[in-house]
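TA notes. Do not distribute before section.
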Amino acid sequence: MKATKKPDWLKMPTIGNSSAGEVRKILSSMNLNTVCNEARCPNRGHCYERGTATFLILGSVCTRNCKYCAIEKNVILPARPDPDEPRRIAEASAMMKLKYVVLTSVTRDDLPDGGASHFAETVKELKKLINGVKVEVLTPDFNGSESALKIIANSQPDVFNHNLETVRRLFSNLRPIASYNQSLEILKRFSEIKPDIPTKSGLMLGLGENSKDIIEALQDLRNSNVSLLTIGQYLQPTSKHISVERYVEPSEFLQWEKTALDMGFTAVASGALVRSSFHADLLSEAKNG
């Protein structure tokens, strides 16, 4: 039976104060995409209010068709990467006085390196322009390419993030073009290439998983050397997307946080409105486990 009415604890945050409005103006004036808007994140007002945002690079059209995601899927080939985008992101970040920047992207299976060089160039531009800035990359799977991971590693991000999203049993249905094992492998491989850079991943709950499934996913992530973890509630973005199976109680999110920490994760953010980049700066302060 599908879940219907949203519980009280899932009340959406406000759109933010005047600081949030200023962030929106900067992003618009620089012609930049954010996953905050494209994925309809419920926390975007809160994050904008704090002067933070997660930039969505490489366009806003994805080459994959995950059933839970609000980002636009391609009906025609996505546009070529904008070579000026890394500079504009760095300038916008400086205008917003950011000290911690999260970069993510749509999946670009049409590009030879999956967009890894564009990620790397953006990291370099940020670090060149903003003294002491920390940069987290939230990447697609690059079809398992080790060379793409090395390109990312050489740009020296401060955190490498790739979301598993869901449990093994549900993965192939929800992410038909991706691979559960491949996602685990790129997390593990990156940690081997750059053991000094923490690796991070995230899960959504409410898609039909059970406790056994979640425990398996958490253990698989730990076995892949992941040290930072986010766990949040799946929210159906539109009627065209897969339905919510259940709304997870706040007490259960707290229990999963405790379980994950007991399993060896260094830092865990677990809650209904937690998303992979929510308070990413605070989570990153924990050292790699």
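Switch to the second chain here.
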Amino acid sequence: MESVIFVGNKAPIKYATAIVTEFEKGPSEVMVKARGRSISTAVDACQISMNKFLEGVEVKDIKIFTEELEDRNVSAIEILLGKVGES
């Protein structure tokens, strides 16, 4: 998958804009990835982009898991957004 957005410390609206920009480039799916404290920002960005800017886009899949980083475990999430009716 080439359309991946990594969420960090910026405001959710910045990532929502990035999601909208990716969909405008033409792909039918965009993956949003985040770890740790950025998970809530990723969820907010997805909700903002779907509810305010994009029509016909839904959550296709959500994966939650734990990654081991520098001898500690960090929660992570992958949210797959896709156009309705396309797989």
